[in-house]
Amino acid sequence: MNCSDFFPMWNQLTSLQQNRIEGSAIYRSAKRNTIIHNGLDDCTGLILVNSGQLRAYILSAEGREVSIYRLFERDICLFSASCMMQNIQFEITIEAEKDSSFWIIPADVYKGLMTESIPLANYTNEIMASRFSEVMWLMEQIMWRSFDKRLAAFLLEESNIEGSCKLRLTHEKIGNHLGNAREVVTRMLSYFQSEGMVRLSRGNIEILKPDALQKLRDA
Amino acid sequence: MNCSDFFPMWNQLTSLQQNRIEGSAIYRSAKRNTIIHNGLDDCTGLILVNSGQLRAYILSAEGREVSIYRLFERDICLFSASCMMQNIQFEITIEAEKDSSFWIIPADVYKGLMTESIPLANYTNEIMASRFSEVMWLMEQIMWRSFDKRLAAFLLEESNIEGSCKLRLTHEKIGNHLGNAREVVTRMLSYFQSEGMVRLSRGNIEILKPDALQKLRDA
Q1: Min Cα–Cα distance to chain A from B99, Å
Q2: Is A203 exposed, middle or buried (0-12, 13-18, 19+ CB in 10 A)?
């Protein structure tokens, strides 16, 4: 566990403080599609992603999902330790989107260190500000952009993450990411296909004209 | 200026630190509808509300508005000091929604104190977590609730804030709050009126059946 990968201010912690983090961290792995953290009742602790990819999403009473953010190698998830701060009052679910491995720092250990170390408290502030910015960006997407643009942006982002033009994604899964019904996704993808921008086959979407999608996204 | 109203951990600051806050704070007042802070370029500083009511909202390219949160007496706004943290990367506008008075603490003074005082750094974390929770709640509203429920919830909240069943609100203003076109607001209010829940007159909405609105909101 190379903590300075996760905490740029690692050298500003005392060796005792460093030991408390390293000594309490628990190593875990999770297969794709496993739920790692489930809402407020579940105070898992801070998640430090070692490998793979996690997805944080919110869930409606009817079971619809919308992705809030993704966590990649070297990212830290604070909201899986929501009991650490009294003012975190929203429910988030975190799942492994790929086979993943990660460390968990118990919330009480981290909370204790935040009341001792100014650099750690301020770094935690920065992590939260960063997630806040992501959520605000997402909200603006939802509020202001029409669905064709959002879908084009999503496909390009996926293609970028996967490093491939061929995406294994069901329409339902895309709907869960974007907060839309499967039917709406299918209709828009069919339109994209009729425009020659993508080719659809069972469970697959191939991007044929990334330039056209970019143009749509940025229009 | 009674700082302990704003900072519950005021006694944990040294008297030098207290003096820096008190000595740098600038007192301002603003008439209703005045813009106090405008986006990222504008690093106003922390706003501490003394009286009145402020509204934070985001703005689309087309000029549509959606309220993000409201600030009342004794509330603190962090995001008007976005230059304080590098990871705050979204644009927020803050206006006086009523005639208001407030103190401004310069961002550099506050930032300096955050790197000295653990209680202040952690309290700042709690303020941000609290705003984050509000934004997540709003996003869930937008994503999951149908507009009739959102409008009912909004009218009840306004009535609660104003302490009156008679609200002076144009349909356009409601649309700006909720991120919907004026026409949609008008249509839904007409429906509420036909159900006997409200009475509409020029620029006014009178709530006749708060129970019915509550039932709709909680359905």
Answers
A1: 28
A2: exposed
